Amino acid sequence: MLSFEDAIKSTLQAVRTVDTEKIALLSAQGRLLREPVKADRDLPPFDRSERDGFAVRAEDCPDGKATLPVHERTIYAGDEPGAAIEPGTAVRIMTGAPLPEGANVAVPVEKTTEIDGGVTIDYPAIKPGLHVHPRGSDARAGALLLEAGIVLGPSEIAAAASVGAAMIDVSRRIRLSALSTGDELVAIEDTPGPAAIRDCNGPAILAMASAHPWIHALG
After folding, report:
1. Among 16-30, 113-127, 147-161, 198-212, whose mean pLDDT is lowest?
2. Which residues contact 111 (CB under 8 A, 6 or more apart)?
3. pLDDT band at 219, cuts 50/70/90?
4. Which of 38, 85, 123, 206 is such that its CA lies 20 to 30 A from the CA of 148?
5. Each residue's pLDDT tens digit, 55-73
6. Architecture in CATH for domain 48-133
């Protein structure tokens, strides 16, 4: 008689790798990734403000205190940063917006008081990089974000979306059927005789398999 270990070994030797297919990223939840996903550019792609407030140079705010003239423009998320900041000035900026060249701090609006044409800052914690999400701090261009062989969930799909992977290579779904054997078995819709029972293992196996998006339960 074939031992359990030999049966497993024989079965695994007969298994072949599932083919690959390319599908839309939004349909890839629960599927097995077959290609690595890399950053197509620095993430974030610019120095990004983490606060609504004012972009300034830390060196213009000794001890975290200063009164600075404010540029007329406001930089919103999605805007180009515009001209470099002039020494000794401030620029209004919103969360997610790119810092203008030369600025290295985003001062929260609640740490400021606006005056006619300017802003007074009182924020002793000021230092270069404060409330700034630096360019490339999440990933550098070409960095590996997702390894082949992982199961794609919401966070992995978000990572792939951030680098423009609208179509993605995944394993084809495994097609699975369950065949229950035994002279005593009848289909679930049939009325069993005195010595018969309805097949419940087959439906249970298919139900468990259907919980996995990478399996297509055939019935």
Report:
1. 198-212
2. 53, 121, 122, 123
3. low
4. 206
5. 999 999 999 999 999 999 9
6. Beta Complex (2.170)
Whole-angstrom distance, CA of residue 203 vs CA of residue 117: 74
Query: In 132-154, which positions are buried (b, 16+ CB within 10 angstroms) versus exposed (e)?
Result: bbebbebbeeeeebbeeeeebee
What are the extents of the domains in the chain?
A: 22-42+139-172, 48-133, 173-219
Cβ atoms of 105 and 131 closer than 8 Å: yes
- Residue tagged 């609640």 (tokens): 110
Looking at the predicted structure, is the pLDDT value of residue 1 above 80? no
Q: Which tokens is 67 given?
A: 């009164």
Domain 22-42+139-172 architecture: Alpha-Beta Complex (3.90)
Contacts of 2 (CB under 8 A, 6+ apart): 10
Give CA 204 to chain center in angstroms: 34
Contacts with 71 (C-beta within 8 Å, 6 or more apart), sequence order: 85, 89, 90, 91, 92
179 touches 140 (CB < 8 A): no
pLDDT at res. 7: 86
Are 32 and 170 within 8 A, CB to CB?
Answer: yes
Give the Cα separation of 148 and 188 in Å (integer).
41
Chain centroid, CA 13 distance in Å: 36
> Which amino acid belongs to residue 191?
T
